[in-house]
Amino acid sequence: AMPGHGHDAGVGGNTNVPPPAPGIPGFGVVPKAKPQFPVRKLAQQPAKKMKKFNWTKIPEQKLLDGKECIWASLCTRPTPLPLDFKAVEELFSVAEVTGMQKAVETKSKPQFITLLNDKRSMNANIVLKSFSMPPESVLEAIAACDMSKINEEHARALCSVIPEPDEAQMLHDYKEDRSLLAPPERFLLSLMEVNNYRVRLESMLFVQELPDQIKELGTVVTATHKVVKALQENKAVPDILCLVLDLGNFLNAQGTTGGAGGFSISSLVKLCDIHSGHAHYSVVHFLAEQLQKSRPDLLDSARELNAAFAELPKSDMETCAAEVGKMSRKFVTASVSAQKLDCADKFTGLFEACRGQVDGLTKLLADTQSGLERLSKLYLGKPDEVMAQFSVFFSKLVKSADENELRKVAEEKARIAKEKAEAEKHAKEEAAAARASASAGKQGRGAGKAGEAEGEGDGDSN
Q1: SS3 for 183?
Q2: Residues 333, 334, 337, 340, Cα dihedral to 10°
């Protein structure tokens, strides 16, 4: 019975039979092979140690993802010509050194592994040497956002050597002994391990350079706002333009360009081209002279406007407006990013101190831009061109007034010198006449005495 029961059980398929034991991990299932980018095979390998070509290898994953890149086709491309690798080996192998030389070189110059190209490695090394503390302390200061140790220049230099994506991937893929890396690579690899290192560095740079940036942009906007306001409100401007309009219509009365109701502001500087018989006396000199005689107050206003134009920086408003907008947007994003750091308290006060200045500058810029639009409608020209032409005109007007004064002084000196010369000439002529008269008198008296003596002689002889 037992055997039969067992047989039935075997045939009937007893459901209580336990399942087979699970397979040992790693056996039974073949893992999917990681794709590899095909590499061109060399015809031969060097037998000597060769000099290093410091190129930057493209990470394998990037090559795999770039299906249309040129490197995908080169891996199977036939060799264009058979390279003479033997000659390469002879020409570019590292010179062998004796055991003593090798010991000295090894002791004096340790051999490190470099992953970055020469330029990037050199730049990173220069940044490290600019600190008066070891790299470990620099990393600690970055982690703590310590701006007493990471000043504006340091932060800017460190931001310039933040690893690019390809470099970061290369550093991340390095799994060997870190002490074998060159100092720049070792530092950057450690920097990448600092939480939010990019945000920390960029935040430290931004809050430290922000005050100077606000001051620089504020100077441009404030100076422009002052000039724009003066050109709209200064009563001397329409008076001077009225005089120029009358002068122009008088000069052009005999031609088709006379009887003008207005003129382009760009025409103002052309007054300098109209000269009298005297080469150094133009219509602008005449206008300045008329103002000096009858309306010195208008000339004083022109001097004030010229001084305001002289304070204008060379930066144009369009570029300045773009910079202010960029700074304002960056202020918002940087303040939000800094608040997420574990050292946010280091930035809170600095951002708050600058917030009012940024808002004030933005408002002043908006007022200035509105003023420029009104200026365009007022003088029927592009704002930047109107500003430029007025700047040149008022400079010429003030210069002409000064030249008029100098000419008057020179003319007065010449008049005095002429009168003095004439007086001296007259005095000399009078002195000469007196001398001539005195000489003639002496001669007359001498002749009289001779006549008397001669008369006495004749008497004695008789």
Answers
A1: helix
A2: -130
The three-state secondary structure class of 113 is strand
CA distance 330 to 213: 12
CA 117/CA 125 separation, integer angstroms: 12
Q: How far apart are CA 46 and CA 91, in angstroms?
A: 12
- One-letter identity of residue 425: K
The whole-number mean pLDDT for each consecutive block of 10 residues of the chain, a chain of 462 residues, reads 40 46 47 73 80 69 75 72 74 71 55 86 92 93 93 94 91 88 92 93 93 92 92 88 88 83 86 80 89 91 92 84 92 90 89 90 93 88 88 92 88 87 88 83 65 59 52
What is the rounded distance in angstroms from the CA atom of residue 160 to the CA atom of residue 146? 19
State both tokens at 169: 């991937």
Question: Coil, strand, or helix at residue 292?
Answer: helix
Q: Return the CA Rg of the chain.
A: 47
C-alpha to C-alpha distances, 246 to 181, 241, 273, nearest whole angstrom = 81, 9, 17
